[in-house]
Amino acid sequence: MKFFQLEPKTHANYLGVKGWAYGGRYGIERYLYTLQRVTGLGVLLYLPMHLIVTSQKLNQAGWEQVMGLVARGLLPFGEFLVFVGGVFHAFNGIRLLLTHFGFLMAQPARPIYPFTVAALKQRWAVYLVFVMTTVVVGYGAWEFLIVAHH
């Protein structure tokens, strides 16, 4: 008696690193998820530098020296980019949590043609993330570029 042998399915990674960022059929939600990863890594990499800089507060001479370095060159622009990434990461994270827990998804329905795409039911939240991020970053840019440098 011969038994049927199941062969393990293997899926070659044809996209490589591009597959990590490629949205494919998932559209803008996939790109926002990828941007969520990137901004999370950016904020995580900023944290040790921030802790090292703020630890200089214990020594007044060291603090003034470090603040002199931080206040010129490209570092203020880098801090602004961290601010932009943090704002986006926060608002998009709230959207992802609400989606994950089902608050922004459609109720399950019978799969009857024409099919409805549940992801489209939360598209308004994607646009809300863009609007809220733009408003907060715009205000932050005004504070950073206009108020703080006068």
From TrEMBL:
Q: Where are the transmembrane segments?
A: 35-53, 80-103, 124-142
**Keywords, ordered alphabetically:** Heme, Iron, Membrane, Metal-binding, Transmembrane, Transmembrane helix
Q: Can the keyword Membrane be found in this entry's annotation?
A: yes
Q: A single GO CC term, please?
A: membrane
Q: Which GO terms describe its molecular function?
A: metal ion binding
**Primary localization:** membrane
The cross-references to InterPro entries, in alphabetical order and at most eight, read: SQR/QFR_C/D, SuccDH_FuR_B_TM-su
Official protein name in the record: Succinate dehydrogenase, cytochrome b556 subunit
Tell me what organism the protein belongs to: Candidatus Glassbacteria bacterium RIFCSPLOWO2_12_FULL_58_11
